[in-house]
Specification:
The chain is of the alpha+beta class. 30% of the residues lie in helices and 24% in strands. The protein has 11 helices and 23 strands. A hairpin with a 2-residue loop joins strand 8 and strand 9. Helix 9 runs parallel beside helix 10. The longest helix has 18 residues. The chain is elongated. The relative contact order is 0.12. It binds adenosine-5'-triphosphate (ATP) and magnesium ion. Magnesium ion binds next to helix 1.
Length: 403
C-alpha cells in the first residue's frame, strides 16, 4: 500500500485490518483519510489474489466507485490495465502491484533427461529451461515422448538420469528430491481429463478449492471461481450457464459440456489453485482451430499477467498460435531433441539444416514434415548433436547454484 508500507513486506497469505485503531496492521490517521473508521476494512491475500471486506464503516469502502455491501468479501481484480480503484470513504488508496504477489515467481530448468521402459529409451536427452512469464511449446510426432517428458518434470515419473530444478530467486530446488516444497507451485493438466461427470462445473471447482484451501470462506471460493472463469472468456450470462452445466461425458451417457467448454473447465480446475508452473498436455486437442487459438491466446495472456511459467505439448498449432510461444522444444521419434530454442527461429534453423524453404507454410506443419522425412531426419540428428553439445554449457543458469 502506498499509504502504509506495512503490508508490502509480508510474504504468503495474510489477513490484515485497515483502520485508525492501534490494533490495525495498516493504521491510517484521520489526516490521511478523513472518514477512516477505527476498524474500517479487512484485506486478505490468498496466494496471488487480494480480497477486501468493509467492516461496517460509516463512510464505506468502494471498488471502482461501487460501494461494497457491509461484511461481504469482494476481489480486487488485477488485469493488464492495472487494478480496481479502492476508496475508503471518498479517499482513494493505492496498492503496490507487488502486494498481489504472495510468492516469488519460479522457473523450471532441467539437465538432459533420460528415461527408459524395459530396454526402450523414451526420453533421450530432452531438457527444458523456462523462465516466469514465458510460454513453451513441446511438439513432435505421436509417441515421441512428449507426455513422458511432462511426467518427468511434474514429478509423476523420475528420470533414470538427469535432474529437474525449480528456480526461485537464486535458489535451485531439486524437484524430485524436495517435491513437497514445490508441489503447491505446480499445476498439471493431463491429456485425458479426470472430472466427475455428475457434478456441475461450479460444484466440481468448489470441491477442488475446498480440498486445496482448508477453511477458505465460501464467498471467497465463489469469487475465485467466477474470476477464473471470466479470465477464460465466460462473461455474465454465459458464466452462469457454464457454471451450472453438468460436466457429463460420453462414457457416462450424461450430456454436458461441449468440447471447447470441457477444455476450459479443465483448465479452470488448474488455474483456481494459482500455479506458478503450469504444465499442460495437449490443452487444445480435439478443438476446432478457432477454439484452439482462443485457448492459446488466453494462456498467453494469463502467463504474462501472472508471470506463470507455462509449458505445453501441442499438436499442429495454427500459425497464429505458433507465434505466441516464446520457446519451442521439438522432439524427434526416438525421444531426442530435434530443436530447442526460440520458436521464432525454428523454421529458419531447419531451412539452414535441410535447405528446404518454409515460405508460405504453416510452421508446425513444416517442422513435422521435416521430421517425418527419413532423409532429412538423419541430417537433423547429426546437426542437433552438435547443437546439443553447445547447449550443455548453457544448461545451468548463471545465478543458480545447483545441488
Ligand atoms: N509406462 C510405459 N510402459 C511402456 N511404454 C510406455 C510407457 N509410457 C510411455 N510408453 C511409450 O513411450 C512412448 C512415448 O509415449 P508418450 O505418451 O510420452 O508419447 P507422446 O509424444 O505424448 O504421444 P502422443 O502425441 O500420442 O500423445 C510411446 O511409444 C508409449 O507407448
Ligand atoms: Mg501425449
Amino acid at each position: 500500500m502506498k499509504k502504509s508500507d506495512k503490508s508490502v513486506g509480508l510474504s504468503g497469505d495474510f489477513e490484515i485490518l485497515i483502520g485508525s485503531h492501534k490494533s490495525c496492521g495498516i493504521r491510517l490517521t484521520a489526516v490521511e483519510i478523513p472518514e477512516i473508521a477505527k476498524k474500517h476494512a479487512i484485506l486478505k491475500r490468498v496466494r496471488d489474489r487480494l480480497f477486501i471486506q468493509d467492516l461496517g464503516s460509516k463512510a464505506g469502502t468502494s471498488l471502482d466507485d461501487f460501494r461494497l455491501p457491509k461484511k461481504t468479501w469482494e476481489e480486487i481484480v488485477q488485469n493488464a490495465n492495472g487494478y480496481n480503484q479502492i476508496k475508503l470513504g471518498k479517499t482513494p488508496i493505492g496498492i503496490d502491484p507487488q502486494v498481489f504477489r504472495g510468492r516469488p515467481r519460479v522457473g523450471l530448468e532441467t539437465t538432459a533427461l533420460y528415461y527408459q521402459v524395459s530396454e526402450r529409451m523414451i526420453c533421450n536427452g530432452a531438457y527444458l529451461r523456462a523462465k516466469p512469464g514465458t510460454m513453451t511449446a513441446i511438439m513432435g510426432p505421436a509417441g515421441c515422448g512428449k507426455s513422458t517428458l511432462l511426467d518427468l518434470v511434474n514429478g509423476y515419473r523420475k528420470p533414470k538420469r538427469g535432474q529437474v530444478f525449480v528456480i526461485r530467486n537464486k535458489e535451485a530446488i531439486n524437484l524430485h528430491r524436495d517435491y513437497n516444497q514445490v508441489r503447491e507451485w505446480l499445476g498439471y493438466l493431463p491429456q485425458d481429463d479426470v472430472m466427475i461427470p455428475e457434478l456441475t462445473v461450479y460444484q466440481s471447482l468448489n470441491y477442488r478449492l475446498k480440498l486445496q484451501f482448508l477453511g477458505l470462506p465460501a464467498e471467497i471460493r465463489r469469487l475465485i471461481i467466477c474470476q477464473t472463469c471470466q479470465h477464460l472468456g465466460f462473461e455474465a450470462r454465459r458464466l452462469k450457464k457454464f457454471l451450472n452445466t453438468v460436466i457429463g461425458s460420453s462414457e457416462s451417457g450424461i450430456r454436458g459440456l461441449s468440447g471447447g467448454e470441457r477444455k476450459r473447465a479443465n483448465l479452470a480446475h488448474e488455474l483456481i489453485a494459482m500455479p506458478l508452473i503450469l504444465l499442460l498436455d495437449e490443452p487444445t486437442s480435439g478443438l476446432s482451430s478457432v477454439d484452439a487459438d482462443k485457448i492459446v491466446r488466453l494462456l498467453k495472456k494469463l502467463t504474462q499477467l501472472y508471470e506463470i511459467t507455462t509449458i505445453m505439448t501441442i499438436h499442429q498449432p495454427s500459425s497464429d498460435s505458433f507465434e505466441r510461444f516464446d520457446n519451442l522444444l521439438l522432439m524427434n521419434y526416438d525421444g531426442t531433441v530435434a530443436y530447442y530454442g526460440a520458436s521464432a527461429q525454428a523454421t529458419s534453423y531447419f531451412e539452414r539444416v535441410t535447405g528446404t524453404s518454409s515460405s508460405g507454410r504453416n510452421p508446425a506443419e513444416y517442422l513435422l514434415e521435416i521430421l517425418d522425412n527419413p532423409y532429412y531426419n538423419k541430417q537433423i540428428l547429426e546437426s542437433f548433436e552438435q547443437e546439443q553439445f553447445n547447449h550443455q554449457f548453457h544448461l545451468i543458469m548463471p545465478h543458480a547454484s545447483f545441488s
